[in-house]
UniProtKB/TrEMBL annotation:
<dbReference type="InterPro" id="IPR051635">
    <property type="entry name" value="SNAT-like"/>
</dbReference>
<dbReference type="InterPro" id="IPR000182">
    <property type="entry name" value="GNAT_dom"/>
</dbReference>
<keyword id="KW-0808">Transferase</keyword>
<dbReference type="InterPro" id="IPR016181">
    <property type="entry name" value="Acyl_CoA_acyltransferase"/>
</dbReference>
<dbReference type="GO" id="GO:0016746">
    <property type="term" value="F:acyltransferase activity"/>
</dbReference>
<feature type="domain" description="N-acetyltransferase">
    <location>
        <begin position="17"/>
        <end position="177"/>
    </location>
</feature>
<keyword id="KW-0012">Acyltransferase</keyword>
<protein>
    <submittedName>
        <fullName>GNAT family N-acetyltransferase</fullName>
        <ecNumber>2.3.-.-</ecNumber>
    </submittedName>
</protein>
<dbReference type="Pfam" id="PF00583">
    <property type="entry name" value="Acetyltransf_1"/>
</dbReference>
Length: 178
């Protein structure tokens, strides 16, 4: 899968981005991107990223511009009905049989935002959840990202009780099966 990002109509060139599953040897680069996109308090730990890639490799997508990592999206399967129970602090219990997916991180380098990278990263996560016959996809996001996730079919649930990283989070849910 090699979707192209798009600029506004005045762009002379459109960069080509490549999307694929993140490999084990790329976890540290993914963590560096996470640290660049989130405050240290809100960013996941390197151990959490290793856990995600090891236990849920089909839910850890990456975006590349040539050989440079510019975006990532990762999630874990869970039996929980909300993501706050799964806040990443480096310790999860694998719930490979869980019927819900909790999106834990979507990060895109600032210079590559608003070019379709986040959209392209969300699609394979949801597609894999559908292929795995999961019931729903949950996430927590900051208020300014609510319209982005609504565009992907997520419904707003409400304010989260989580204050992970000192931020105010909003819960959203995409129902995959009734």
């Amino acid at each position: 899968m090699t979707p192209q990002a798009s600029y506004g109509s005045g762009a002379d060139t459109i960069p080509e981005y490549h999307y694929r599953l993140l490999q084990t040897n790329e976890v540290e680069a993914a963590h560096q991107l996470e640290m660049a996109c989130f405050t240290p308090e809100a960013a996941a730990t390197l151990e959490a990223f290793r856990f995600r890639q090891l236990n849920f490799p089909c839910y850890f997508w990456s975006a590349w511009s040539e050989d440079h990592l510019i975006g990532l999206a990762c999630a874990i399967r869970t039996a929980e009905s909300a993501c706050e129970e799964n806040e990443v602090k480096g310790s999860h219990e694998p719930q490979r049989d869980g019927m819900n997916l909790c999106v834990l991180s979507v990060a895109v380098e600032p210079d590559h935002r608003l070019q379709g990278v986040g959209d392209a990263l969300m699609k394979p996560l949801v597609k894999q959840a559908l292929n795995d016959h999961l019931e729903s996809v949950y996430l927590m996001c900051e208020e300014h990202l609510i319209p982005f996730y609504k565009k992907h079919g997520f419904k707003y649930i409400g304010l989260s009780s989580s204050n992970h990283g000192g931020l105010q989070w909003h819960e959203m849910k995409l129902v995959l099966s009734e």
